[in-house]
## 1
Amino acid sequence: MAESTIDYTTLMPNNVGLADDPRLLRALERWYPKYLEWWVAMGPSGFIDETPFQETEVWLRTAVSVERDGWAQFDYVKMPEYRWGILLAPPEEGRTIPFGEHKGQPAWQEVPGAYRAMLRRLIVIQGDTEPASVEQQRFLGRTAPSFYDMRNLFQVNVEEGRHLWAMVYLLQRYFGRDGREEAEELLRRRSGDADRPRMLGAFNEETPDWLSFFLFTYFTDRDGKMQLEALAQSGFDPLSRTCRFMLAEEAHHMFVGATGVGRIVKRTAEAMRDAGIEDPYDTEQIRALEVIDLPLIQQKLNLHFSLTLDLFGSEESTNAANAFHAGLKGRYHETALDDDHQLVESTYPVTKYVDGGFREIDVPALNALNARLRDDYVADCGGGLRRWNRYITDAGIDFELSLPHIAFHRKVGEFADHHVTPQGEFVDEITWNARSAEYLPGDGDKEFIEVLMQQVTTPGEFASWIAPPRKGIGGQPVEFEYVQIPGTV
Ligand SMILES: [Fe+2]
Ligand SMILES: [Fe+2]
């Protein structure tokens, strides 16, 4: 069978030849009911009290091919019946390790013994984020602003579930008993749990409302993209192929975020214009229109951006250096970069706080890979903001959304011990405490948003605080019934 063809005869659709590997197939089949148990307990939940939520039909795309064109097919699916598949991008003939000590050697098809522990760790950390975000988003269906948005949420959720499958496949296929244990652990940790939290900070935070959801998919899924891009370069070919296919799905998650925030900004700007409100800080008047004021959007943006930057880890990291040197995790667009891909003598400028100011200090490039990936990430974040700001200027309002300074509100790395404003000004603790309510959402803001978040379940209608999308999804118009709740037809 060609490797781009998907086999549907096994419980998990796959293009990795599961039918020919009965031991692995059995191991994955044993994991399946545990995964479903987790999905029902921790996945999308309680659409409306009393309705058999798991029976809800959702207009979802399922991957039916790993080729670039026509890889997805849309249909009504009950989420627990979604075909979570194990799908790798087609192999590249004669692929070699693109960077590090083993650069130029044939890519590994089996785990290189010396790097087993390091590789397993990379896969587990990536794998842990996938179910975590599903857990963080599990109650959002209850407050969805439309069927269109609810469907997008569920699409993101089932695909994060598939990403978990992708990592669990690698663990079970290549890491024997250790891998099976890690696969169990991935279902045992819980986002935000005091005793068994998820591995990374931002994945233990709440996603309490839809503005948070859109900012999360814009900023935090984009961290996911950067990590996947770096792992897609891996000399361990199965990991590279897995990540390359995951990236195709990830693009939709960021689309949901970028357009979601954009539609909120658009709605606010237009409501202000129509009501003749010019001052963006006239929050009382603006909130009376049942839209989210721009300063609050900026505060929520500050929060999600800073939490996400912490995911990149310390600017200088020997772990990252080792993973690169070993050929396991590369840089963003590694193969397109014009250098020796080994970084033996090169340096990279890392922003630090020195003598009362920010300075760019050259450090060995091998040690600065986290800083570099973060810098690439920050640049990648810019596009959405430019589009969002256009809605504001189009409505004739004098306000600009912007990314806060990278040192703002950090808990990891170079700036963790400092208080820095979104504008990049160092302040002492007393000043910070007095002013942080300007920078980050407060309790009153959370209450305001909570009251706004009311579920809308008439096809084609949208909550007051968000504009409709320009077009529908999966070949359907905006007013399509993207979610069918049993007993309500
Ligand atoms: Fe993912
Ligand atoms: Fe994602």
## 2
Amino acid sequence: MKSIIAIFLVIVHWASLAHADDRCPVCHEPVVDVTTQVDDRSKPSKNIAVWNRSMCGNKFFEAGSTICLNDGYAYEAKIKRWQLWIADRDSFKHSLDRRIYGFPLPDKNQHAVYTQEFVTLGSVTHGLVFRTVNDKAYLAKIRQYSKTQSVHLYIELDKEHGEAFITASITTKTEQAASLNGP
Ligand SMILES: [Zn+2]
């Protein structure tokens, strides 16, 4: 009898885990299968990680991947991570880290995209990617900003076209703080 109860409890536990996966970790609304959704090109992309609108299309987010229609967070089944990439830094339901939010953008940038990626909200990577002209003064400014703000900065120079491809990111952990305050 005990073993039957144990098996029953395991099944209930599995069922609750499956149920948790069907909801957005940020707003807790039910999510839908990405492959059932169509990109509405008359509006800004709900999630550039899912619908990047380039010629390449979307290599990821295949069957089993889900998206929250309330705030755009999407779960990529292959890499088992939630991702939200959008141009509007104010549109993140889970607040964007202030150091990425306030990262100094150049006057001339091509389509800056803000990103959040996580397995759980206990450890969230906040990021920013964009292309700009290869301007020494600007690059020195963001190197200094990244150093003082502990932002991880990656600059790839395209000398042929006089451009720079910038990636800035920072990972924030809340589980560590929670466990420190735990019993
Ligand atoms: Zn949501």
